[in-house]
Please model this.
Amino acid sequence: MNLRQPFSPSPSQAKPKAGASSYAEADGRPDDSTFDLAGWRQDFPILNRQVHGSPLIYLDSAATSQKPLAVVDRLQQYYLQTNANVHRGAHTLSEEATFAYEVARDRVQAFLNARQREEIIFVRGTTEAINLVAQSYARPRIKPGDEILLTAMEHHSNIVPWQILCQQTGAQLRVVPINDAGEIEWQAFTALLTPHCRLLAVTQVSNALGTVNPVAEMITLAHDAGVVVLVDGAQAIPHLQVDVQALDADFYAFSGHKVYGPTGIGVLYGKRALLEEMDPYQGGGDMISRVSFEKTDYNVLPYRFEAGTPHIAGAIGLATALDYIAGIGLNRIALHERALLDYGTQALAMIEGLRLIGTAQNKVGILSFVMAEAHAHDIGTILDQQGIAIRAGHHCAMPLMERFGVAATARASLALYNSRTDIDALVAGLHEVQRLFH
Model:
């Protein structure tokens, strides 16, 4: 690992080669040869390891993505050469760490196309971001009889904070139903935008289904009804180009570890006018400008919401991860993942007794399914013995599981480093599950 050179795109991140945009198959869809997949995979050394004597096939990126060497190198560079606390020291290391940390904020601002850097708040992840909004923005403003609107496909992290808020304030939760494909029931959604509705909290992409919600249209209608909108972007950010100004989202949250960055770092974007009205969520160092025993004056944005020593390395690593995927191009990543999703959907549909859960027309690379005779956890265990990593369970979406009448699903989730060979191995593994349970 080169600790002296700044990050620059690897050959796998270079512009597409001439002719790379042509489809490799007669059916008009790209396959693995359309992309520099081998080069992309080389950037993820963990994919070279074996599990139970078989090559690792990682199909659990919706839980957490693997990290490219560029991110690992940058973290090592920080800890070996720059490690210091930010915003407080007058010495060289502190100044260098502060500079890198604030450059990371600028990188996130550009990635989201936020209007101002002060609108970017570093948090531990999507969960903390949602709790921050619930307690710092919503709690002082929500009254008994007000309504918080969610959808039936939300992650627990976008349910429980609002339940806590309702217990604290006397507000009520309302839930937008979904159809059998896992799509919002639009008429029901519009009907729930009543004069009592104060806030809509909606996932842009379902972690359990892969459904891509029409959040731009939902935000427009919500704003027309005077409703503030928080978007959970945890599953969207690795797959979709997000422009918070174009969306007109009031708040947008995502986690670094889903987008090839470190764990324990995330982002809350908020419109400056809303953030300026909010009191801090936590108290401590760096969120203050002056403290006495009689009174505390809070710091300016964004620091008033970043109490204590932040995850400095995490923010720097997240910025490197965003550079990494920008070097490849989100559009190319999406094209590759869409081709894999189509291939996987067709392959799994041919397995007798397998039922796909989540068949929305607009979705990202998530394949959730149940099998007639095997529990999801048994499927996951058997596949693991073949080196195939999937997720099995309720995926922190128990109300959604209840909606589809299942206790759990098996979920294979795709990322830029996956291939058709991975899908073929998954299918072969599922045939072995069938053999064992017949």
Summary: The longest strand covers residues 197-203. The radius of gyration is 22 Å.
